[in-house]
């Protein structure tokens, strides 16, 4: 049996009911294939003793599962209200201009997929941009060029500060 | 531990977080961590439930239901043949809310300790932490903290030699706002689409795998160690009579210092926005405040002396919700705000019940027409009618969460909505701070249209 099968069986062993492992299993399959092709549903179904159709019906409910191929790097811009109020649309448009695609598309070389997402949970530190689910916060349109150079393998420029860092640089703000 | 420069802060959960990296178990224990668990394990279960009740702690996820009462609805371990479960709602996704995330990335052990205390009090044999899928860093931090706790014998068989055994399973979501609704969460945890169940039966009786299940928010549970340490009554002395304790408020939008701030309940919105948050930047004027996440009715600038208190906020016609305070300055068009909020709920509607599935789509279409100046007076009336046909008529609170804010924007900013009709377009003339914001649902529909376009 494949490594993927064994990994899914290991995860499923944590739950009293095997079907509870559908989400983690789909995540493992997506990590394996880069997205969820028909074979991924067959793999998950086999390991969890479900049908491929059932697994696909669950996957289609959740935004993080890709039912179509995506680029090597996934760039997600939060455009919910807190980020929108502080300039998320300008950040998104800068990504669109620099990548030559519109939100929802993948670059022709298969490197980048750009999309908008609903509230990422970094509202006080907007605009939030998630790059392969690693958050950049306080991102401004002017930071976009630097972020893309970094992702294309140029020198890291350290733009977009890490989570929990406020305007004045104090970690974690208030809570204390 | 009050910071001199901001005397309004009241760190209780975050009491020691400024001086030490509390993601490390040694630092957490040096700061008194896991002492409450040790105390709890030598206490009678009933005694713990009484402490929860005495504390007056109300759920920090949004609904504000008393935590102790919710826990008391579960059968006792000797009254049921089924296993008892704790499900931790760490699926934070209410727009404007990011406090559970900060609790997890700075205080993972406070969460774990709270989970262990609650689990012991109800006799749970497994606690599942349903962690929002997008929160990758928080997942890694909580996972590592759990490993440290397991290595110290705090999690697993025979916790600290007490004879009580509990396992904690970290379960990651995969991107669905509705899984923050308690029964949607349970469905998702059972490996299904996250569509809410009709209630009753309530989860306390028939929850995960049809067994008794207590579901609590991250902040609610992370507060338990402090309650056990100080005693329920002493905790209840903080805050106001009906809203006890402290709360971590998420401040965002057009405010100088956005962030999470732990305050005593009963502090005014004005204090949070101006004294703590530094006010409205760029010389702009305050226009509106959303006091409890995007699901709650809006307040206008004249209402910011309302206190952050469950009942006072209800008296003002809004809700304290998830404690997410979104500040809006005078550059924002309220029709665009309504459209963006409606788009969110359309995107997140699970599709199970008709008023929500169809109503949110109607709301978006009517708001789009209003924004471009193509709506008639009758269509503004129709928008309010659609809100009315959603309110109170859905299986779960998502429908209300979509209709309440939109109805409130029209009620509070009626002139602005009228002007879109009378002037045949947006009075902001392209200068609104929310101009042209691309929502995922709009992006998706555009992509679908282009996919079916027939080439000439």
Attribute tags:
heterodimer, A: 176 residues, alpha+beta, Arc Repressor Mutant, subunit A, Glutaredoxin, 2 domains, four-stranded mixed beta sheet, 7 helices, B: 456 residues, alpha/beta, Rossmann fold, Ubiquitin-like (UB roll), de novo design (two linked rop proteins), 3 domains, five-stranded mixed beta sheet, four-stranded parallel beta sheet, globular
Task: Describe the SSE topology.
The complex is a heterodimer of chains A (176) and B (456).
Chain A: H1 3-12, H2 22-33, H3 38-48, H4 52-59, E1 73-78, H5 81-85, H6 88-99, E2 112-117, E3 129-131, E4 134-136, H7 144-151
Helix pairs in contact in A: 1-2, 1-3, 2-3, 3-4
Chain B: H1 25-30, H2 35-41, H3 45-55, H4 67-72, E1 85-90, H5 99-106, H6 108-122, E2 126-131, H7 136-151, E3 167-172, H8 182-189, E4 213-217, H9 218-230, H10 232-236, E5 246-253, E6 259-264, H11 269-276, E7 286-290, E8 299-300, H12 310-315, E9 324-329, H13 334-348, H14 354-371, H15 377-390, H16 398-412, H17 414-422, H18 440-451
Parallel strand pairs in B: 1-2, 1-4, 2-3, 5-9
Antiparallel strand pairs in B: 5-6, 7-8, 7-9
Helix pairs in contact in B: 2-6, 2-9, 5-6, 5-7, 6-9, 13-14, 13-16, 14-15, 14-16, 15-16, 16-17
